[in-house]
Amino acid sequence: MNQAETHPQTIVLVEDEDAMAAEIKGELESKGYFVRIASIAQAADAARVGDAAVMVMDRIVFGEDSLKTLEVLRKEGVKVPVLVISALSSVDEKVKGLKAGGDDYLTKPFAMVELSARVEAMLRRLDDVRTTKLHVGDLEMDLIEKTVHRGDARIDLLPREFRLLEYFLRHPGRVITRAMLLQEVWQYHFSLETNVVDVHISNLRKKIDTKGSPSLIVNIRGAGFMLNANA
Q: Which pTM does this prediction carry?
């Protein structure tokens, strides 16, 4: 393969509308990525051999539903991040796309800057997974051992609490909204009226905070929460 095909940030694009493909390609290349336009079969082959950092797949390509191929890839253990784009915008269709193995789902029409922002977020998460330990102050999480300590004391967390704390530790000092947590921790990519986030954060605080000290996770009025990076 030539050098372009092995570019570490190759975006494989599956889109059968020439004008749309050209616009997406131009937007992503303006951000410094190499974009390869491919058929569904070509994209699947690239994913299998590690030639795609991220795939952007139109849902319906020449009458074929790309989710079928995505499901096969996931069953084979292929983990390349996939952004599904589609004119099918109902909640049921979004859920179908995510259950098939999509990491994100963007409905047409969309702003190109939003598409590139979502691709950039996927690539950041790829960089994040290379980290094995996260910490703020004396709170440390070991992603390999799946353990959490504050100082010398081990903290036992439930799986959802662990993922919730991990998300905060990856974004210290940043305002985190409930919608962000529902999407990233619970994998709900649509609006949902629930207090599940507040309940889990309350339980998490009881486990990670020390008596007499300010809470590590603070409420930001009208916005969400933030992990105190100076704790």
A: 0.56
